[in-house]
Specification:
The protein has about 325 residues and is of the alpha/beta class. It has nine helices and 14 strands.
């Protein structure tokens, strides 16, 4: 581990678009790390990505990257079914691991990674990048300081339009479908806002007859005194929004999940003076790259020998709710 320059050396397993277009460039802009290597199962693809992104090393096998003694931490953006396997291999190779969400296909897989983390002594974290964005830090602060009063309802919509059968998000065997891809954000946000786990979960799923993935999933989570309602969709006009409604106020997050890095974000705090919006106040948030901030925070924890910013136990809890929603959706409803 480098100590003089206070930077960690990242290795990237896979050349998924989330990695090459967003996360790797963001890590390269960070203060506490540099991307030292990238791997693909096809060496030509790895070399092309390395050339385009100015990464010094390219590997044609994931294990070769894990064997590199100059790599401190590995980012895993592989398809969902391979997260646990390669996070485990990276940890066993002595590398810290930032793994894309969802961290596993189910809660059992996420729990298995907790065992791996404890056995190997490395940090493993699920990459919910929104945790690092200042708009969310502001939102959570407002809720915790009870600026909304007691929170009673959280409403979330997250949707995009994708009919490409070649896209892994539309392949059931690769963990495709709305619930695992973006529904995990809805569950995460609800649990974060209420700061507790739901006691009940109801899920309703509509599947694409050709692709086989859940293209429309709605959920209701009971937090005993508060409800979260959410819908994720993969075949609708792109739209996302979060509403948090309390006894004294309402908070609206306009672009909650894909906040543009190059321009300010905006929250709306509504005191409920009138339904025409007379009690609304805009809260402007400075521009921020949530991927850069996520990478630097994880790197800081590594350098300091501290715990991961987002405990892996949170990933287990999130997956338990996702499992419950899938189970609920399979149960027959009364006539």
């Amino acid at each position: 581990m480098p100590t003089g320059d206070r930077q960690v050396r990242w290795g990237v397993i896979g050349t998924a678009r989330i990695a090459t277009e967003r996360v790797v460039p963001a890590l390269q802009r960070g203060a506490l790390g540099r991307v030292a290597a990238i791997a693909s199962r096809q060496i030509d693809r790895a070399r092309r990505a390395a050339s385009e992104l100015r990464i010094p090393k390219a590997y044609g096998a994931y294990d070769d990257l894990l064997a590199d003694p100059d790599i401190d931490v590995v980012y895993v953006p592989l398809p969902n079914p391979f997260h646990v396997e390669w996070a485990t291999r990276a940890a066993e190779a002595g590398k810290h691991v930032l793994v894309e969400k969802p961290v596993a296909m189910d809660a059992a897989g996420a729990a298995a990674l907790v065992v791996v983390r404890d056995r190997t002594g490395v940090l493993i974290q699920e990459a919910f990048m929104i945790r690092a964005h200042p708009q969310w830090e502001t939102a959570i602060d407002l809720v915790r300081r009870e600026r909304l009063g007691v929170v009673r309802a959280v409403h979330v919509f997250f949707g995009y339009h994708n009919l490409d059968p070649r896209d892994i998000r539309n392949v059931p065997e690769l963990g495709g479908g709305g619930l695992l891809d973006i529904g995990c954000y809805i569950v995460h946000v609800a649990r974060w806002m209420f700061a507790r786990e739901p006691s009940r979960a109801l899920g309703i799923i509509d599947r694409d007859p050709a692709l086989g993935i859940d293209r429309l999933t709605s959920m209701m989570l009971d937090f005993d005194g508060g409800h979260a309602v959410g819908t994720c969709a993969t075949q609708v006009v792109p739209y996302q929004r979060v509403q948090v409604v309390g006894e004294k106020g309402r908070l609206e997050i306009r672009i909650p999940f894909n906040a543009p890095a190059g321009r300010p974000s905006r929250l709306w705090l509504d005191r409920g003076t009138d339904l025409a919006g007379g009690g609304m106040t805009a809260i402007d948030i400075e521009p921020a790259d949530q991927y850069t901030r996520q990478g630097d925070r994880f790197a800081q924890a590594i350098l300091d020998g501290a715990a991961a910013p987002l405990p892996l136990e949170d990933a287990v809890a999130n997956m338990r709710v996702l499992d419950a929603l899938r189970l609920s959706a399979r149960r027959p409803s009364p006539a």
